[in-house]
Structure formats: structure tokens, C-alpha cells
Design brief:
By secondary structure, the chain is mostly helical. It has ten helices and no strands.
């Protein structure tokens, strides 16, 4: 059971309802994470604006890959479950690609560089080296895209940490981060 209160969509603060309704229109449900953030209309509004802006960065498959890698690094079962479901069902990534992404890799060479970089940024809390920046540049990412990759890591760190703090009940098919660790990923 979640350590923080997760209201129903109808029981959310009035200022959160328009954003939660928008999420419902997009997904057909309002996930527990959204309702959790919605307990603070200010946090929900800020997060929704950040997320909306970042939805125009890179491509949807690369964004999904980064989310999977960061959730794995941070041990967030909620986010890993959500992003695995969304990656397979909405972004149409095959399960074997999702497994690679969780391990900080991709079959796609350009995406591989972005995912490796994002995973390292998350693991090292931003303390990456010149070689790491050079590798992502060599794959074809410019400075603005490197900023966007770091912003995507940051967006995902927020939800990873919030779900860890709250122990949010998982409302997606459950995927555990330790399952990859046991396989050597």
C-alpha cells in the first residue's frame, strides 16, 4: 500500500482535475503516479509542463528507451512497469529491445549512444567524462540534444524517486528491476 495518499481522479484537488482529465483522454486511465503527483496541483502543473515540453524532443522511441534505462538504474519498479507497458503497447518497441534498453543499450546504433549516455548520467548523477560526451556527439547528437537527454533523465529521476518514496501501488503489469540484475544485466 502506498505510503502517500493517492486520491481518485474525482477526489483530487480541483486545480489538478483539468490535467488529470487530459491524462485520462490520452491514456484512457489516470495512473496512480499521476494521481499521486496531483495531490499537489503545483507539482502536477510543473511536471505536466516539463513532460509536455520534452515530448517534442528526440523521437518517441528514444524517449521511451531512456525512461526504461533510467528506471532500471534507479530501481523504480513502478516506472519500469509503466514504461515497459507503454514502450511495448504505445511506442511499439519489441520486448527484446525493451530488455536491451533496461540494460542501457539498444539495437539501433544512434539510440544506443543516447541510452548509454542517459544511463551513465543517471548512474553517475551527472558526473560523466569527456569521453562520454564525445561518444554521444559522435553518434550524431548536438549540444541541444545532449541537453534534452539530460532533461529526460531528470524528468524520469523525479518520477523514479517519487515512486520510491511513496511506494506507489503498481497499476501496470509488474516488471521488477531486480529481475534484470539477477540475469546479469
Amino acid at each position: 500500500m502506498s505510503r502517500l495518499r493517492i486520491s481518485t481522479r474525482d477526489g483530487a484537488p480541483a486545480a489538478s482535475k483539468p490535467i488529470l482529465d487530459s491524462i485520462y483522454r490520452k491514456l484512457g486511465v489516470v495512473p496512480n503516479l499521476s494521481r499521486l503527483i496531483g495531490s499537489s496541483p503545483i507539482a502536477l502543473k510543473a511536471f505536466a509542463a516539463f513532460q509536455d515540453g520534452l515530448s517534442r524532443t528526440l523521437d518517441s522511441k528514444t524517449r521511451a528507451r531512456i525512461a526504461l534505462a533510467v528506471a532500471q538504474v534507479n530501481g523504480s519498479d513502478y516506472c519500469l512497469s509503466a514504461h515497459s507497458y507503454l514502450a511495448i503497447n504505445f511506442t511499439k518497441l519489441p520486448p527484446e529491445e525493451v530488455a536491451l534498453n533496461r540494460a542501457g543499450a539498444s539495437k539501433d546504433p544512434k539510440a544506443d549512444a543516447a541510452v548509454k549516455f542517459a544511463a551513465k548520467v543517471a548512474r553517475k548523477r551527472g558526473h560523466v567524462g569527456d569521453a562520454d560526451v564525445s561518444a554521444v556527439r559522435l553518434a550524431g547528437y548536438g549540444d541541444s540534444q545532449i541537453v534534452e537527454i539530460v532533461a529526460l533523465v531528470t524528468e524520469n529521476v523525479f518520477t523514479n524517486y517519487l515512486n520510491k518514496v511513496a511506494e506507489t501501488d503498481i497499476d501496470f503489469p509488474i516488471v521488477r528491476t531486480e529481475a534484470l540484475s539477477r540475469r546479469g544485466g
